[in-house]
Amino acid sequence: MTAGTPARRLPKHASKDAARCSQGKQRMIVGIDLGTTNSLVAAWVDGAPRLIPNALGSVLTPSCVGLDDDGSVLVGEAARERLQTHPFRTASLFKRYMGSGRTVQLGDRDYRPEELSSLVLRALKADAEAALGMTVTEAIITVPAYFSDAQRKATRVAGELAGLKVERLLNEPTAAALAYGLHEAGSEIQFLVFDLGGGTFDVSILEMFEGVMEVRASAGDNMLGGEDFVTLIAGLAFANGIPEAARGDPHFMQKLVARTEAAKRELTKAGSARFEVSWKDATATVALDNETFEKLAEPLLNRLWRPIERALRDARIRAADLDNVVLAGGATRMPMIRALATRMFGRFPSIALNPDEVVAMGAAVQAGLKMKDKALDDVVMTDVCPYSLGTHVVRQLENGGRASGFYEPIIDRNTIVPVSRVERYYPVDRGQKQIRIEVYQGESRMVRDNILLGELTVPLPDGAAGQQGVDVRFTYDVNGLLEVEVTVVANRETERLVIASGDAALSPEEIAERLKVLSALKVHPRDTLENRTLLARAERLYEQLLGDLRDRVGQYILHFEHVLATQDGRAIARDAAAFREALRVIEEQDHFAPPTG
Amino acid sequence: MSHTNFLAVLGVTTDADARAIKQAYAALLKRIDQAADPAGFARLREAYEQALAFVAGKTNSAPVVATPTPAATPTIATEAAAAVAESRTTPTPAAEEPPPADDLAHTLRLAEGFALAAQRATPEQVRPMLDKAIAGLRRGYLDAAGRFEERVIDMLMAGAVGNRPAIFTALREAFHWEELGRLAALGTRGRWIEAVMTQEDAWHQVLLKKRAPILNTLREADAPLTEDLMRSWPRVRGALDEFPQYLSLYLHPARKAEWRQRYEAFDAARAAAMPDIDAPRSHQPRRETPKKPFVGFGLAIFVLLQVGRFLGDNHVAPQVSAPPAPVARVSQPYPTQGNRVTVTQSPYTSECEWVLKRYGTTPTFYSPPSGSEQETLLKTCREQWAKRR
C-alpha cells in the first residue's frame, strides 16, 4: 500500500482499542465492497476508514463459495482453491448473474446468485465481528453504478439473507470518490473515477466544493471487467491446440482459468508470460507479452470509450477540464489500462489510493457519514441516477395520425437523487376501459431498444371521467431503487407497481424461506479456516502437478492431515507455516516452467 | 419558485454571486438527511439550481460552474514523479511515455481525410472506413473523437463532401445519434441533425413511387446541370422546400440555388417570349406543380392506414375491456415540428435496394472530384470551420 493512505489495517484479531472505542457507540455500520472477483469489508474506526482482514489475514476475500466434503460451506480463498478440484461443488463470478433467475448447482441444491452472495457477506460479517469485538447487523454495500433495479434489489436481498440490514446501496465509483475526496479534503476540483472491476466497468464525474462531493454524471457497462481479459487469454489455449470439446470439461476449464489468472498477474509484473496446459493428449503452449495482449484486447478496450464519452458529455465538460483521474478496481492495475487512461486523458491517473481497496474504504466513509461521525461533519455527498427511466407513449402527430412505440423519459439520466417526478398521461381512445403503463429503463428513442422493467394496468372510470387520464409518479431513492405509482385523476385511486419481471425477484415469503434454509447450512468454523485453505490449495496443486512434485505434495497433505488430527495447537501452527512455505516454493516453480515430464 | 423564493430558501440576497450560493447550498445540504427527507432535499436542490441559473443570467457571462481553478493544478511533472514512484513496484508504460498532447490539427486532418475518402466509397464501405478512423483516434486523446465528429458534421452541413447520405448514416450509427440527449450536447450541429432525421422519417412516409424519381433527379443534378435537368426544377421544388435539410444531403445547397436561379431566368425568358398569352405571370416564377400534392397524398394514405390499423386493433378492445390501447399523451405533441412518425425499417435500406434494382450495380452518388477540386473543397471547409469558431 502506498504511504499516506488513511487506512490502517486492523490487526488480525480484535484489538482492545478498537473494541473499547466501539463499545461506547450505539451501533456499528460496516462498509462492504461485494465484488465479482474479491470482496472486502471496512469500518469507520477512530475517525478513519479501516480495512478488516479475514481469518487468513488478507483484506481481499475471493468471492467464491463452495461446499466442503463434509457438506459445510467454505467461503473465500479455500473455495477458490477448490474451483479446480471440485468444480461441481464450488461457485464463482456469481455477481454477474445478480438479478437474473439463473442459478448455480452446488452439491444437490440450486443456489441463486443472491444466496451465494449472502454467504460471502456472512463470512465478511464474521470477520468484522471478530475484528471489532461486537455484533454487526448493519452494512453499506457497494454496487456498480450501472447496476439495474433488479440487480440492486438482489443485492439488498443478499444482505438480508446474511442477516445484515442494508443501510444503503452505494455506487462503487461514488464510494471510490468518497475515499479519494477525503484524501484531497479542502480542495475544489473536478475529477473522474475510472472503475474497472472484475466484472463491471463504471465511470463517474464528480465536482467537489465546500466539502460537498457532487456526482455530476455516471455511465457504465455491466458486462465488462477484468474477468473478460482472463477469458481472452484462456481463449488462446484453444487457438493453440486444445480442442473445443475441452470447454465442456469443468475440471480442465478451472485449471485453465487458474493458469490464465496467474499469467495475467505475471504480465502485469514482468511484461510477459508463458504457460502450458494439456487436455487428454493435446497440449497448448501460450506465450504472450503486453504488446500482443493489448492487440488481442482491443475490442474490450474499445468498449471503455463509450461510457466515458457519455459521462463527459452529460457533465458538459471536456477531458481537458478534469483536474484528476482516479483509478479504482483491480483490473486498472493492468499496464495497458493505465497506459490507455494516460493517453485518453492526456495526463497520468492518480494512484494515491490502492485501486483494490478504494471502494471498500469509501463504503466505510459512507458508514461513518451514516453514523453521523463528528470527523465527517463537514462532508456531504450527492449522487445521480445513471440511466433514464420512462414509459411507453403513443404520439399524436401534427397531421392527426398516431404512432406508438415511443419512449418518454420521466426521470432523465444523471438527475440528482433522491428524485420524484410526476407526469400526466391520457387514454388514446374515448371509452377506453383501462390504461397500461409500461416502465422502461434506457436511452433509446424507441421503447423496443430499451429494457422493460415492469408494467401495470389500471382500470379507468367510464365516460368523461376516464378521459382525465392518470398521473404517473416515478420515485428514485438514494439507493437507486425505483418506485412507480399510478393515480387515476378522476377518483384518486392509486396503484403501486411492484417491479418484478418473471422469476427474477424473490417475494418476501421466499426470502424468509430461503433465510431458514441458509441458516441451517453449516459454515466452516472460522478459526480452522486457514488450515482448511492450505489443504485445499495443496489438493489443487496435487491435481495440477505431475511426477516428483506431485508425489511430494501428496506426502505433505498426508503429513499435515496427521498433524491436524493430533489437535496440538502449537504443533499445527508450526507445521502450517512450513507447509505454506513449501507450497509457495512449489507453486512458483511450477507456474511458468511447467514440468515437461 | 419565484426568484425571491429560491434566494430565501438558500438564505442569500439578490447580489450573491455563484460562490456565495455554493457556500450557502453546501451549508444547508450538510443539515439535511437526503434519505429521510427527500422533499426537503428536492426543495433545496431546486432552489440551488435556480439560483445558479439566476446568477448566470444576471452576469450573462460564461460558465455557471464558477469553480476557480485551483492555484496549483497538479502539474504533469508532479504526477509523473508520483507515477515513477509507483513504477518501482509495477512497471507501467505510463511512466515511460509522456501523456500525448491534444493534437487538434491531426484530428481535423483525419476527419477531412475520412470524409474525402468516403465520398468515393459505396454506402456499405463507409461504415467500416469510419470505424477504422475512430479506432485510430481511440489510441489517443479522449476529446479527439468528439472533435472528429464535429468536423465531419460541419463538412456535411457545408456540403463540402459528396456521398453525404451514406456518411450521415454511418455517423448516425457510429456516434449513437439516436440516443436520448445525445444531440442536445452537439448544439447547433445537433439541431441540424435532428432536423435531418425528422425530415427523413417524414420523407420515408412518402410513397416510394413518388420519392424515388425525385431522389434520382437530385442525384443527377449533383453533377453539372444540363439544360434538360434544369427544366425539371418544378418537379423537385416542392420536395426541396418541404425537406430542405434532409434533401441537402443529396443536392448541394449551392447547386440548389443555382438550379432555382437558372430555372427562374429560363421561366422569365419564356414568359417574355410569349407576353400576350401569359402576361400576368411574367413577374413571378410559374408554379407548374402545386406545392405538395404528392406528399399530401402519401401522408393521407399513411394516415388512412394508421387509422385503419387503430380501428382494427380497437374495434373490439374497448367493449370487452381486453388489454387496452397504449398510452397517449395528447397534451404534448413531439417537441420537434414536422410529421414525425415511426420508422419501421432502417432508413436507407429501401433507398439502396431500390437503386440497386434499378441500375443493377452499386450506385455512385457523387462523381469524385479531381485533385484541384478536392483542394478547393478542403479550403472551403476550413474557411467554414474558421468562421464557426
Polypeptide structure, described:
The complex is a heterodimer of chains A (597) and B (389). Chain A has 597 residues and is an alpha+beta fold. Helix content of chain A is 37%, strand content 28%. In chain A, strands 1, 2, 3, 4, 10 and 11 form a six-stranded mixed beta sheet that branches. In chain A, strands 17-12-13-14-18-21 form a six-stranded mixed beta sheet. In chain A, strands 20-19-23-24 form a four-stranded antiparallel beta sheet, with no helix packed on it. The longest helix of chain A has 24 residues, at 569-592. With 389 residues, chain B is mainly α. Chain B has 20 helices and no strands. Chain B has helices at 3-10, 18-29, 38-59, 76-87, 93-96, 104-118, 123-137, 144-158, 164-174, 187-203, 208-221, 227-231, 233-242, 244-247, 253-273, 275-278, 293-314, 317-320, 349-359, 371-388. In chain B, helix 2 runs antiparallel to helix 3 (38-59) and helix 6 (104-118) runs antiparallel to helix 7. The longest helix of chain B has 22 residues, at 38-59. The radius of gyration of chain B is 28 Å and the shape is elongated. The two termini of chain B are 37 Å apart. The interface between A and B is large, with 103 and 78 residues.
Task: Name its key features.
heterodimer, A: 597 residues, alpha+beta, 6-stranded mixed β-sheet, 17 helices, 37% helix, globular, B: 389 residues, mainly alpha, elongated
